[in-house]
Predict the structure.
Amino acid sequence: MSTSVPPPVKPVSLSKQGDDRLVIVWSDGHRSEYHWTHLREHCPCAGCREERLAPPNPLRILKPAELAPLRPVAFTPIGYYAYKITWSDGHDSGLFTLETLRALCECPACSKSTQAAK
Ligand SMILES: [Zn+2]
Ligand SMILES: [Zn+2]
């Protein structure tokens, strides 16, 4: 029996599921599913956070890149604690820490527990 803090959960495998989803299997056996749009909507970079806080501008013209479905073109590990997603529109300033990724999990079990917490 050890009383030390358990090691942080780490992804043991990352894979694409179909065209629109990412699947992460964690070291504790949990399997997370994410829609790319869900990850992009929760991009933690300052630019996206500001955009989400700003009131919607009805006169804003969508850029062609925004009309095309967004896909990630690269998923780069940053050290041991985060992943950087590069998107098909060139956006790459969002660093998703493992904590953030785990919190964004869309699997039925996690969505249930987030709903219960509300
Ligand atoms: Zn962003
Ligand atoms: Zn989950």
